Protein backbone atom coordinates (compact mmCIF):
# COMPACT_ATOMS: atom_id res chain seq x y z
CA UNK A 1 0.00 0.00 0.00
CA UNK A 2 1.77 3.20 -1.12
CA UNK A 3 2.14 5.67 1.74
CA UNK A 4 4.66 8.43 2.28
CA UNK A 5 7.60 6.09 2.82
CA UNK A 6 6.77 3.99 -0.25
CA UNK A 7 6.47 7.08 -2.45
CA UNK A 8 9.76 8.41 -1.07
CA UNK A 9 11.43 5.15 -2.12
CA UNK A 10 9.88 5.34 -5.59
CA UNK A 11 11.09 8.92 -6.00
CA UNK A 12 14.61 7.95 -4.98
CA UNK A 13 14.71 5.08 -7.49
CA UNK A 14 13.48 7.33 -10.28
CA UNK A 15 15.85 10.14 -9.32
CA UNK A 16 18.87 7.82 -9.34
CA UNK A 17 17.84 6.38 -12.71
CA UNK A 18 16.82 9.57 -14.52
CA UNK A 19 18.14 12.75 -12.94
CA UNK A 20 20.77 14.56 -14.97
CA UNK A 21 20.12 12.38 -18.03
CA UNK A 22 18.61 13.17 -21.42
CA UNK A 23 15.39 11.42 -22.34
CA UNK A 24 15.72 9.21 -25.40
CA UNK A 25 12.19 7.81 -25.09
CA UNK A 26 8.95 9.46 -24.01
CA UNK A 27 5.55 7.80 -24.12
CA UNK A 28 2.61 9.03 -22.03
CA UNK A 29 -0.32 6.68 -22.60
CA UNK A 30 -3.19 8.86 -21.50
CA UNK A 31 -5.32 10.58 -24.15
CA UNK A 32 -4.63 14.15 -23.09
CA UNK A 33 -0.85 13.75 -23.34
CA UNK A 34 -0.54 11.07 -26.02
CA UNK A 35 1.19 13.48 -28.39
CA UNK A 36 3.49 15.04 -25.78
CA UNK A 37 7.16 14.55 -26.68
CA UNK A 38 9.84 14.96 -24.01
CA UNK A 39 12.67 13.39 -26.02
CA UNK A 40 15.85 15.44 -25.88
CA UNK A 41 15.04 17.07 -22.56
CA UNK A 42 17.05 16.47 -19.39
CA UNK A 43 15.35 15.19 -16.25
CA UNK A 44 16.31 17.62 -13.49
CA UNK A 45 15.05 15.76 -10.42
CA UNK A 46 12.31 13.52 -9.07
CA UNK A 47 10.80 14.72 -5.82
CA UNK A 48 8.16 13.18 -3.54
CA UNK A 49 5.47 15.38 -2.01
CA UNK A 50 3.35 13.41 0.42
CA UNK A 51 1.92 10.63 -1.74
CA UNK A 52 2.62 12.52 -5.00
CA UNK A 53 5.60 12.21 -7.36
CA UNK A 54 6.97 15.21 -9.24
CA UNK A 55 9.44 14.57 -12.06
CA UNK A 56 10.86 17.94 -13.11
CA UNK A 57 12.09 18.13 -16.65
CA UNK A 58 14.09 20.68 -18.62
CA UNK A 59 11.96 23.40 -20.14
CA UNK A 60 9.87 24.14 -17.06
CA UNK A 61 7.78 20.96 -17.24
CA UNK A 62 6.77 18.61 -14.41
CA UNK A 63 5.32 15.13 -14.83
CA UNK A 64 2.99 14.64 -11.86
CA UNK A 65 1.84 11.18 -10.85
CA UNK A 66 0.03 9.56 -7.93
CA UNK A 67 0.14 5.84 -7.21
CA UNK A 68 -3.11 5.52 -5.22
CA UNK A 69 -3.57 1.82 -4.39
CA UNK A 70 -2.28 -0.07 -7.43
CA UNK A 71 0.12 2.25 -9.25
CA UNK A 72 3.86 1.71 -9.41
CA UNK A 73 6.98 2.95 -11.16
CA UNK A 74 9.53 0.32 -12.19
CA UNK A 75 13.08 0.99 -13.39
CA UNK A 76 14.78 -1.36 -15.84
CA UNK A 77 18.20 -1.54 -17.44
CA UNK A 78 17.95 -1.25 -21.19
CA UNK A 79 17.37 -4.70 -22.63
CA UNK A 80 15.91 -6.01 -19.36
CA UNK A 81 12.49 -7.63 -19.54
CA UNK A 82 9.69 -5.48 -18.09
CA UNK A 83 7.76 -7.30 -15.39
CA UNK A 84 5.46 -4.77 -13.71
CA UNK A 85 2.28 -5.98 -15.39
CA UNK A 86 0.67 -6.48 -18.80
CA UNK A 87 1.38 -3.96 -21.53
CA UNK A 88 -2.13 -2.46 -21.43
CA UNK A 89 -1.49 -1.31 -17.84
CA UNK A 90 1.47 0.87 -18.81
CA UNK A 91 0.68 4.57 -18.55
CA UNK A 92 4.12 6.16 -18.93
CA UNK A 93 7.57 5.33 -20.30
CA UNK A 94 10.61 7.55 -19.75
CA UNK A 95 13.84 6.21 -21.21
CA UNK A 96 17.48 7.33 -21.16
CA UNK A 97 20.62 5.86 -22.70
CA UNK A 98 20.88 3.23 -19.96
CA UNK A 99 17.65 3.09 -17.96
CA UNK A 100 13.92 3.00 -18.62
CA UNK A 101 11.27 4.00 -16.08
CA UNK A 102 7.85 2.45 -16.65
CA UNK A 103 4.71 3.62 -14.84
CA UNK A 104 2.04 0.97 -14.35
CA UNK A 105 -1.63 1.52 -13.44
CA UNK A 106 -1.10 5.20 -12.64
CA UNK A 107 -4.53 6.68 -11.84
CA UNK A 108 -3.12 10.22 -11.92
CA UNK A 109 -0.69 11.31 -14.63
CA UNK A 110 -0.43 14.86 -15.91
CA UNK A 111 2.04 17.31 -17.39
CA UNK A 112 2.23 20.66 -15.62
CA UNK A 113 4.29 23.75 -15.88
CA UNK A 114 6.74 23.49 -13.02
CA UNK A 115 5.57 26.89 -11.84
CA UNK A 116 2.05 25.41 -11.55
CA UNK A 117 2.93 22.48 -9.29
CA UNK A 118 0.91 24.11 -6.54
CA UNK A 119 -2.21 23.26 -8.50
CA UNK A 120 -1.49 19.57 -7.85
CA UNK A 121 0.10 19.61 -4.40
CA UNK A 122 -0.49 23.07 -2.96
CA UNK A 123 -3.37 21.82 -0.82
CA UNK A 124 -1.14 19.41 1.12
CA UNK A 125 -0.15 19.96 4.72
CA UNK A 126 3.43 19.63 5.98
CA UNK A 127 5.19 16.65 4.40
CA UNK A 128 6.38 14.13 6.99
CA UNK A 129 9.42 13.31 4.82
CA UNK A 130 9.83 16.68 3.13
CA UNK A 131 11.87 19.83 3.74
CA UNK A 132 8.70 21.72 4.63
CA UNK A 133 7.96 19.53 7.67
CA UNK A 134 6.60 21.60 10.53
CA UNK A 135 5.28 19.60 13.52
CA UNK A 136 3.61 22.60 15.13
CA UNK A 137 1.71 23.39 11.92
CA UNK A 138 0.73 19.74 11.51
CA UNK A 139 -0.69 19.59 15.03
CA UNK A 140 -2.48 22.89 14.54
CA UNK A 141 -4.07 21.53 11.36
CA UNK A 142 -5.15 18.32 13.07
CA UNK A 143 -6.76 20.15 15.99
CA UNK A 144 -8.58 22.65 13.80
CA UNK A 145 -11.66 20.39 13.84
CA UNK A 146 -11.61 18.90 17.38
CA UNK A 147 -14.79 16.84 16.82
CA UNK A 148 -13.33 14.94 13.89
CA UNK A 149 -12.36 11.29 14.53
CA UNK A 150 -8.61 10.92 14.87
CA UNK A 151 -8.34 8.32 12.09
CA UNK A 152 -10.09 10.56 9.57
CA UNK A 153 -7.97 13.56 10.56
CA UNK A 154 -4.76 11.58 10.06
CA UNK A 155 -5.78 10.51 6.56
CA UNK A 156 -6.62 14.06 5.49
CA UNK A 157 -3.54 15.07 3.50
CA UNK A 158 -4.40 18.72 4.06
CA UNK A 159 -3.42 18.27 7.71
CA UNK A 160 -0.14 16.45 7.17
CA UNK A 161 1.02 14.60 4.10
CA UNK A 162 2.11 10.97 3.90
CA UNK A 163 -0.13 8.93 6.19
CA UNK A 164 -2.32 6.17 4.80
CA UNK A 165 -4.38 3.33 6.23
CA UNK A 166 -1.44 1.41 7.67
CA UNK A 167 0.12 4.28 9.59
CA UNK A 168 -3.30 5.55 10.67
CA UNK A 169 -4.08 2.30 12.47
CA UNK A 170 -0.56 1.87 13.83
CA UNK A 171 -0.33 5.44 15.15
CA UNK A 172 -3.65 5.14 16.95
CA UNK A 173 -2.45 1.92 18.58
CA UNK A 174 0.81 3.50 19.70
CA UNK A 175 -1.10 6.46 21.14
CA UNK A 176 -3.43 4.08 22.99
CA UNK A 177 -6.65 5.51 21.56
CA UNK A 178 -9.16 4.30 18.98
CA UNK A 179 -9.35 5.86 15.52
CA UNK A 180 -12.92 6.98 16.31
CA UNK A 181 -11.95 9.15 19.26
CA UNK A 182 -12.50 12.84 18.44
CA UNK A 183 -9.05 14.33 18.05
CA UNK A 184 -9.94 17.06 20.54
CA UNK A 185 -10.43 14.34 23.17
CA UNK A 186 -6.99 12.81 22.71
CA UNK A 187 -5.05 13.55 25.92
CA UNK A 188 -2.98 16.67 25.34
CA UNK A 189 0.33 14.99 26.15
CA UNK A 190 -0.32 12.24 23.59
CA UNK A 191 -1.61 14.65 20.95
CA UNK A 192 1.58 16.66 21.33
CA UNK A 193 3.62 13.51 20.63
CA UNK A 194 1.69 12.61 17.49
CA UNK A 195 3.57 14.62 14.81
CA UNK A 196 7.00 13.49 16.03
CA UNK A 197 5.84 9.86 16.33
CA UNK A 198 4.39 9.89 12.82
CA UNK A 199 7.57 11.36 11.38
CA UNK A 200 9.74 8.83 13.21
CA UNK A 201 7.73 5.89 11.86
CA UNK A 202 7.99 7.08 8.26
CA UNK A 203 11.66 8.00 8.56
CA UNK A 204 12.75 4.62 9.91
CA UNK A 205 10.79 2.85 7.17
CA UNK A 206 11.77 4.90 4.13
CA UNK A 207 14.97 2.84 3.70
CA UNK A 208 13.45 -0.53 4.55
CA UNK A 209 12.16 -3.06 2.01
CA UNK A 210 9.49 -4.20 4.50
CA UNK A 211 7.59 -1.70 6.62
CA UNK A 212 7.78 -2.25 10.40
CA UNK A 213 6.31 -0.35 13.33
CA UNK A 214 7.00 -2.90 16.08
CA UNK A 215 10.77 -3.25 16.07
CA UNK A 216 10.25 -7.02 16.16
CA UNK A 217 11.54 -9.60 13.71
CA UNK A 218 8.57 -11.93 14.05
CA UNK A 219 5.81 -9.39 13.43
CA UNK A 220 6.09 -6.11 11.52
CA UNK A 221 2.82 -4.43 12.50
CA UNK A 222 0.85 -4.12 15.74
CA UNK A 223 -2.70 -4.13 14.41
CA UNK A 224 -3.03 -3.43 10.68
CA UNK A 225 -4.21 -6.50 8.78
CA UNK A 226 -3.99 -8.71 11.90
CA UNK A 227 -7.69 -9.47 12.54
CA UNK A 228 -8.48 -11.74 14.39
CA UNK A 229 -5.00 -12.59 15.64
CA UNK A 230 -4.05 -11.69 19.22
CA UNK A 231 -2.66 -8.29 20.17
CA UNK A 232 1.10 -8.40 20.56
CA UNK A 233 0.80 -6.70 23.94
CA UNK A 234 -2.33 -8.07 25.65
CA UNK A 235 -3.36 -11.08 23.49
CA UNK A 236 -6.88 -9.72 22.90
CA UNK A 237 -8.06 -10.48 19.34
CA UNK A 238 -7.54 -7.53 17.02
CA UNK A 239 -10.75 -6.14 15.53
CA UNK A 240 -11.48 -4.24 12.34
CA UNK A 241 -14.19 -2.10 10.80
CA UNK A 242 -14.59 0.44 8.03
CA UNK A 243 -14.11 4.09 8.90
CA UNK A 244 -14.93 7.09 6.75
CA UNK A 245 -17.28 9.92 5.96
CA UNK A 246 -19.60 7.81 3.83
CA UNK A 247 -17.95 8.82 0.56
CA UNK A 248 -14.91 6.63 1.16
CA UNK A 249 -14.65 3.85 3.73
CA UNK A 250 -11.24 2.70 4.93
CA UNK A 251 -10.45 -0.61 6.68
CA UNK A 252 -9.32 0.22 10.21
CA UNK A 253 -7.78 -2.02 12.86
CA UNK A 254 -7.52 -1.68 16.64
CA UNK A 255 -7.08 -3.54 19.92
CA UNK A 256 -10.21 -3.21 22.10
CA UNK A 257 -8.11 -3.58 25.27
CA UNK A 258 -5.03 -1.45 24.59
CA UNK A 259 -6.93 1.42 22.92
CA UNK A 260 -9.54 3.53 24.66
CA UNK A 261 -12.30 5.53 23.03
CA UNK A 262 -15.43 4.96 20.94
CA UNK A 263 -15.68 2.06 18.52
CA UNK A 264 -18.27 1.01 15.92
CA UNK A 265 -21.32 -0.93 16.99
CA UNK A 266 -20.74 -4.70 17.22
CA UNK A 267 -22.60 -5.23 13.95
CA UNK A 268 -20.26 -2.84 12.11
CA UNK A 269 -17.03 -4.34 13.42
CA UNK A 270 -15.69 -7.23 11.40
CA UNK A 271 -13.10 -9.95 11.77
CA UNK A 272 -11.09 -9.50 8.59
CA UNK A 273 -8.43 -11.99 7.64
CA UNK A 274 -6.35 -9.24 6.10
CA UNK A 275 -6.43 -5.69 4.71
CA UNK A 276 -9.08 -4.91 2.13
CA UNK A 277 -8.05 -3.04 -0.99
CA UNK A 278 -9.39 0.49 -1.19
CA UNK A 279 -8.55 3.64 -3.09
CA UNK A 280 -6.11 5.92 -1.33
Automatic annotation (TrEMBL):
Domain Formamidopyrimidine-DNA glycosylase catalytic intervals: 2-130
Keyword Protein biosynthesis: no
The protein's Enzyme Commission number: 4.2.99.18
Assigned keywords, A-Z: DNA damage, DNA repair, DNA-binding, Glycosidase, Hydrolase, Lyase, Metal-binding, Multifunctional enzyme, Zinc, Zinc-finger
CDD domains with a match to the protein in the record: AcNei2_N (cd08971)
Major enzyme class: lyase
Entry keyword annotation includes DNA-binding: yes
Region annotation (Disordered) ranges: 255-280
Record Pfam families: Fapy_DNA_glyco (PF01149), H2TH (PF06831)
Domain FPG-type as annotated: residue spans: 222-260
Family: Belongs to the FPG family.
PANTHER family: ENDONUCLEASE 8 (PTHR42697:SF1)
Protein name as catalogued: DNA-(apurinic or apyrimidinic site) lyase
Protein species of origin: Streptomyces lutosisoli
Classification of source organism: Bacteria, Bacillati, Actinomycetota, Actinomycetes, Kitasatosporales
Amino acid sequence: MPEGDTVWQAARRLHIALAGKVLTRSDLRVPKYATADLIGRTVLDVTPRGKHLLARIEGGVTLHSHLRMDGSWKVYANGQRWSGGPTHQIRAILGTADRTAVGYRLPVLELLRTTDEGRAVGHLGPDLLGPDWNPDKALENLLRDPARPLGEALLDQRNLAGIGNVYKSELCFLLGVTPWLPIGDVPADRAAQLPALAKRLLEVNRDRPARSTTGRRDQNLFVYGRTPRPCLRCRTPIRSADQGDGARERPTYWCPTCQTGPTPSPGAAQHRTGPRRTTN
